[in-house]
């Protein structure tokens, strides 16, 4: 098993060495067993007791060791991100799979096989840093590529469209979804009046809310999400010619989500479910991977599409412009320090490299101001680029100087400007005309027109693609969307808001709108007046459904294996072997965390206590108690929930031959079928893992 953690060795009482200019590598001072010092490097022998006058006397202000320790502690927190505050990340590598040298001069795409260090941060949007992982929310998918020509940040989401078309509206959108300012709640939720009030007046949000109400907004984990650059960008070649490009990250693990009731329970059972999942997978050597696929097209194709490619509330269907896989991202190293790396990483949409450029998407243009600006209040200094996680891994040379927390001595000599006539050894860096591939040159575009505060006519159709999304979902997914709208709007206290949302949805699909109205007990309102005619001729795009293209593998997923004392040792081993062979993880759950004595007298270590590990934490479960053990389980609410929830969440359930009393105790005896097989042998275990590759038994009639 690979272990990506750095090992730290215990040293003698040598003093730590100073670490200087490390080229962006994260550094750790050697510390284990070292002499403890103050921040000034003064060795100290007592870090536990403050300096007092007399045995029980007052603590003295003259205790500089105490003052320094408390001073630093008092200032440990920095402002959390105004959005995307809760997140988690990991290091990895991006490998170029195909040269794109005919399309872009971007250094990393010149040669197949080029490897570029990467750091990725996934996040929820609305919740605070301490909120739970399985909020119904958009997920951030931000990738920093440390290329040889500077840092390139693709700051995307797991949903390919956005709520608004113009950056000017972003503060309103965010204020509406965040906690209501008078009461300071609800947190990490869109299910409240202000959010739905805002979007009800914002028909352009309709497309994105359909995605947000879909299972995409409750992913199984970060590893099972797609990522999207959202905006249309440009690739630029050596002649300065541009090709439009859209970025897609496709998980090799397959896309997967949980069901809503499961999400609610996971938040209680393990609020860190997503970050733990990423950590566990990487530390177990199961490195998640995403293909980077691009949609490439020119002006002619852009003009032929029924939507404006500058409108971030629209996608370009994969069926119209196919995806081309050009690289692969592998995350293979967990962080050494959450604060230094995940909290301090600063993504900026403005960070692009030669060969990449922006388009006039008005949302992107606004973002290019916001991300740099926000780092100042979050990280406190213009020198945030010197933090190891943000520092480029290529040479950096400029005359920017000073500022708070300047950590480098950038140059010697008198020169901090250009042009200058000083000799070569002190003249400093020079910016001179260079070919496109050698330095960044903004794409040369023709601009004309009057300056006006307007929205282009070409952005006016707000419903046609929302309809395409809806008709592209499987019936199961459509039902989840209806359920999610009904739940969210049920939390809205003002019935007029509910009505306005449903009025907008009538322009997407009558059936969708009437099902939601029915679920809310709301008289069906008149449809709202669309700004542009809704196109009902656009075909479905199967690529928009998660369930239409299942991964058909249980690899990377987790089996919860419930055992008791006396469980059949051969069966337990058969299950462990079959799932491990299928590259899945197995967690042994037992009434006592110490584990169980199996039928052959061997001891099986437990990973989790039954009361602390509900089945929502697993992708499938196997329940193989002994004939005696099951009697206890049949009376245990935790065991009953374990089975009942797994059943109601459509999970595959393997049942040992003696599990019947538990099955009867939860009233499922007449509901067993192929998706709840009896496991009596190692061969059964092997076919069970194959069944589990379907991930969920969606045909199961859980509500009957
Ligand atoms: Fe962001 N966004 N955003 N956003 N965004 C931030 O930058 C902003 C938008 C996204 O893991 C902030 O460093 C504006 C779209 C991600 O550190 C801030 C607008 C997309 C992350 C900001 C948008 C995103 C952020 C807060 C509309 C998907 C987390 C902290 C014009 C394509 C990055 C920070 C991380 C974070 C502004 C819209 C994705 C305030 C003004 C569209 C993944 O700068």
Report on this model:
The chain is of the alpha+beta class. Helix content is 25%, strand content 14%. The strands form 3 sheets. Strands 1, 2, 3, 4, 5, 6, 7, 8, 9 and 10 form a 10-stranded antiparallel β-sheet that branches. It has a 5-stranded parallel β-sheet with strand order 15-12-11-16-17, with helices on both faces. A two-stranded antiparallel sheet has the order 13-14. Strand 11 (558-563), helix 14 and strand 12 form a beta-alpha-beta unit. The longest helix is centred in the middle third of the chain and has 18 residues, at 362-379. The structure holds CIS-heme D hydroxychlorin gamma-spirolactone 17R, 18S (HDE). Residues 81-84, 87, 121, 123, 140, 142, 155-157, 162, 167, 170, 230, 312, 347, 363, 366-367, 370-371, 374 line the site of CIS-heme D hydroxychlorin gamma-spirolactone 17R, 18S (HDE).
CATH superfamily of the largest domain: Catalase core domain
Radius of gyration: 28 Å
Based on secondary structure, the structural category is alpha+beta
Which CATH architecture of the largest domain? Beta Barrel
Q: Report the strand count.
A: 17
Beta-strand content estimate:
5-15%
Largest sheet: 10 strands, antiparallel
* Number of self-contained structural domains: 3
Give the SSE layout:
Layout: H1 64-74, E1 87-96, E2 115-124, E3 139-147, E4 150-157, H2 170-177, H3 193-200, H4 206-212, E5 227-228, E6 233-236, E7 242-251, H5 260-269, H6 273-283, E8 289-297, H7 299-304, E9 324-333, H8 338-343, E10 356-357, H9 362-379, H10 464-471, H11 475-490, H12 495-505, H13 510-520, E11 558-563, H14 569-581, E12 585-590, E13 596-597, E14 603-604, E15 608-609, E16 620-624, H15 629-633, H16 637-648, E17 653-655, H17 660-665, H18 682-692
Helix pairs in contact: 2-3, 3-12, 4-10, 11-13, 12-13, 14-18
Bound molecules: CIS-heme D hydroxychlorin gamma-spirolactone 17R, 18S.
């Amino acid at each position: 098993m690979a272990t990506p953690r750095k090992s730290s060795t215990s040293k003698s009482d040598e003093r730590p060495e100073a670490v200087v200019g490390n080229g962006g590598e994260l550094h750790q001072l050697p510390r284990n067993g070292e002499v403890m010092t103050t921040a000034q490097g003064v060795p100290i022998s007592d870090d536990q007791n403050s300096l007092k006058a007399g045995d029980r006397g007052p603590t003295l202000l003259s205790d500089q060791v105490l003052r320094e320790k408390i001073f630093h502690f008092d200032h440990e927190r920095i402002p959390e991100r105004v959005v995307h505050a809760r997140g988690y990340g990991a290091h990895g590598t991006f490998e170029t799979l195909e040269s794109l040298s005919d399309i872009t001069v971007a250094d990393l795409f010149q040669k197949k096989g080029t490897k570029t260090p990467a750091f990725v941060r996934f996040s929820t949007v609305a919740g605070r840093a301490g909120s739970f992982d399985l909020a119904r929310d958009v997920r951030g998918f931000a990738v920093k590529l440390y290329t040889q020509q500077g840092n390139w940040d693709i700051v995307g989401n797991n949903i390919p469209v956005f709520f608004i078309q113009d950056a000017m509206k972003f503060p309103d959108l965010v204020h509406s979804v965040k906690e209501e300012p008078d009461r300071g709640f609800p947190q990490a939720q869109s299910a409240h009046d202000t959010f739905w009030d805002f979007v009800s007046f914002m028909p352009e949000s309709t497309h994105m809310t359909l995605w947000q109400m879909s299972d995409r907004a409750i992913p199984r984990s970060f590893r099972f999400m797609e990522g999207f650059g959202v905006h249309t960008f440009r690739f630029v070649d050596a002649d300065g010619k541009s090709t439009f490009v859209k970025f897609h990250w496709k998980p090799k693990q397959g896309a997967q989500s949980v069901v809503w009731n499961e999400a609610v329970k996971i938040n209680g059972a393990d609020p860190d479910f997503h970050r733990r999942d990423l950590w566990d997978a990487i530390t177990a050597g199961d490195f998640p991977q995403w293909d980077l696929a691009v949609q490439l097209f020119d002006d002619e194709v852009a003009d032929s599409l029924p939507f404006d490619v500058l409108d971030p509330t629209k996608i370009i269907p994969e069926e119209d412009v196919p995806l081309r896989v050009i690289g692969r991202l592998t995350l293979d190293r967990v962080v050494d320090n959450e604060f230094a790396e995940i909290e301090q990483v600063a993504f900026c949409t403005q960070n692009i490299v030669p060969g990449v450029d922006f388009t006039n998407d008005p949302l992107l243009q606004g973002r290019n101001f916001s991300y740099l600006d926000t780092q100042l209040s979050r990280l406190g200094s213009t020198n945030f680029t010197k933090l190891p996680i943000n520092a480029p891994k290529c040479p950096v040379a400029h005359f920017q100087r000073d500022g708070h927390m300047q950590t480098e001595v950038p140059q010697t000599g008198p020169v901090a400007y250009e042009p200058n006539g000083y000799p070569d050894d002190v003249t400093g860096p020079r910016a001179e005309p260079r070919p496109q591939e050698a330095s960044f040159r903004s794409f040369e575009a023709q601009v004309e027109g009057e300056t006006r505060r307007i929205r282009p006519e070409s952005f006016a159709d707000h419903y046609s693609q929302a309809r395409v999304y809806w008709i592209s979902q499987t019936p199961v997914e459509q039902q989840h969307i209806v359920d999610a709208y009904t739940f969210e709007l049920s939390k809205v206290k003002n019935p007029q808001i509910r009505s306005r949302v449903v009025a907008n949805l009538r322009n997407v699909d009558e059936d969708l709108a009437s099902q939601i109205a029915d679920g809310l007990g709301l008289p069906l309102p008149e449809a709202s007046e669309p700004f542009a005619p809704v196109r009902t001729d656009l075909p479905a795009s199967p690529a928009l459904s998660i369930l239409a293209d299942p991964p058909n593998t249980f690899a990377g997923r987790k089996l919860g294996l419930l055992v008791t004392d006396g469980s059949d040792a051969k069966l337990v081993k058969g299950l462990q072997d079959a799932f491990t062979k299928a590259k899945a993880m197995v967690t042994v759950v037992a009434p006592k965390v110490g584990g169980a004595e199996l039928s052959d007298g061997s001891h099986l270590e437990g990973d989790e206590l039954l009361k602390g590990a509900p089945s929502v934490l697993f992708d499938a479960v196997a329940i193989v108690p002994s004939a005696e053990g099951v009697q206890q389980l049949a009376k245990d609410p935790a065991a009953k929930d374990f089975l009942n929830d797994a059943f109601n969440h459509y999970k595959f359930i393997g049942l040992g031959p003696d599990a019947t009393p538990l099955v009867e105790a939860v009233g499922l005896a007449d509901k067993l079928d192929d998706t709840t097989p009896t496991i009596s042998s190692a061969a059964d275990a092997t076919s069970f893992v194959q069944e589990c590759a379907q991930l969920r038994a969606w045909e199961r009639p859980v509500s009957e």
